[in-house]
Design a protein that fits this description.
Length: 438
């Protein structure tokens, strides 16, 4: 992470403290992810939880942050101590002293002291805010802390009266991206778009899906991304009809389409792009017909992204276009009224058109508030990803069998509409063909 700026993380902690204070004050305790062994002596690549990273910028495992919201607000970090022997094997650790200084905490302590210190920090606090029901080990640890705290009431020490889910506050904060997040996500979108261009150029008949997978992963990493945001989907021919296809091991043939759903994670933030294009560089007639339909749905959905509109409007717009198109192409039969009332599009389009995007590819944030679709506000980030997936069936024209198409872009809600972060890779059929010829 070059030119790492801790200011946004400090600002988020201040905002969280203000929220908790508004609700009567208390203590927030946020743990990071546990390391997991892959096989003896090897760990899975480590990634902090999104919640913990959002508030700290700290990437080492075995860390917990504690924020005390009250008249005398305090911010503490618990982390691994320096250890010459361990650092020889697994690399640099900040250690509490340097971490407190660098990341802007009032104090930091070795993680081994967390349980004892937490009992003290909970004294006379009205409430405890933490991550609940995600990690059973953590739940047990929180309840044990509350039990120790409660055992002290006969000494006249107050104990928290309420246990609150911290994501209720944090998810709302994370839904609206700040300037530093927007800058990172623009960059993540640019890298992923360029990787898709490279993937299109590298695709030709008789290559394997995994060769294109490798191009994507190489490009992401070579441009500073730490991880793919999710395992790339490189799905040729009928594999494109498997929504989260994983194998990526098939040989591609002339005449087929290749669907690639791949995005990188940059300093924690995801991009999430899908393009679908012909393996040999030229769409067939039926492929182009369906492609134009999905592209029209993508265009229609985009037009609905603006402040004040509901977050379901892009999906509704895509459904109208797709239902009409499926009918025009003979995939669905009946009147528009009937088809709409029966949600007949579901046979060929079985996922939603958008999800929030951020630290998590399927990012946090409620879609409905009090039973109503929430409205767009500047700073929200979402995907636009209509598709169609046609499985062979007697009542479906054979020319469309096994065609799977998705066109997915990433949008930022701006003051007057949407900004698209992933337009660096072509979407128009003619542009894709031109790129692949070149
Ligand atoms: N890549 C997963 C999705 O598009 O939602
Ligand atoms: Mn995707
Ligand atoms: Mn997506």
């Amino acid at each position: 992470m070059s030119e790492f700026d801790t200011a946004p993380f400090r600002a988020r902690r201040e905002r969280l403290l203000a929220h908790i204070l508004e609700q009567g004050g208390g203590v927030a305790v946020v743990p990071t992810a546990q390391e997991r062994e892959r096989n003896p002596g090897n760990m899975y690549p480590y990634r902090a939880t999104s919640q913990f990273f959002y508030l700290s910028g700290f990437r080492e495992p075995e860390a917990v942050l504690v924020l005390v919201a009250g008249e005398n607000p305090r911010q503490y970090l618990f982390c691994r101590p320096r250890d010459e022997e361990r650092e020889l094997w697994t690399g640099f650790r900040h250690g509490p002293e340097a971490a407190a200084e660098y990341f802007g905490f009032d104090a930091a302590w070795p993680i081994a002291g967390l349980d004892a210190k937490l009992t003290e920090l909970l004294a006379d606090q009205p409430s405890l805010w933490t991550t609940l029901a995600v990690d059973p080990d953590w739940d047990r640890r929180v309840l044990a802390a509350l039990m120790r705290s409660r055992a002290r009431v006969r000494n006249g020490i107050g104990t928290p009266r309420s246990l609150n889910e911290i994501s209720v506050v944090l998810d709302e904060m994370r839904l609206i991206k700040d300037a530093s997040e927007i800058a990172l996500m623009r960059h993540a979108g640019e890298i992923a778009a360029a990787a898709h261009v490279r993937a299109m150029q590298a695709t030709r008949p008789e290559r394997y899906e995994f060769e294109i997978d490798a191009e994507l992963l190489y490009f992401f990493r070579a441009h500073g991304s730490q991880f793919p945001a999710y395992p790339p989907i490189v799905a040729s021919g009928s594999n494109a009809c498997v929504l989260h296809y994983e194998a990526n091991d098939r040989k591609m043939h002339a005449g087929e389409l290749l669907l690639i759903d791949a995005g990188c994670e940059l300093d924690g933030y995801a991009s999430d792009i899908t393009r679908t294009f012909p393996v040999s560089g030229r769409f067939s007639g039926p492929q182009r017909d369906l492609y134009q339909l999905v592209l029209a749905a993508n265009h229609a959905a985009r037009l609905e992204i603006r402040p004040g509109n509901t977050c379901n409007a892009p999906h509704e717009a895509a459904l109208v276009v797709l239902t009409q198109g499926f009918r025009d192409l003979g995939l669905l039969k009946g009147s528009m009224e009937e088809l709409t009332a029966n949600a007949s599009y579901r046979r060929f389009y079985m996922h939603r058109t958008s999800h929030w995007l951020g630290l998590d590819v399927h990012d946090v944030g409620q879609y409905k508030v009090d039973g109503h679709w929430r409205t767009f506000k500047p700073g929200m980030m979402l995907t636009v990803e209509p598709g169609c997936y046609v499985r062979p069936a007697e009542d479906v024209p054979e020319a469309f069998w096994n065609i799977g198409i998705r066109i997915e872009d990433n949008a930022l809600v701006t003051a007057d509409g949407g900004e698209y972060l992933t337009d660096g890779v072509p979407r128009e059929a003619d542009e894709i063909e031109a790129l692949m010829r070149g």
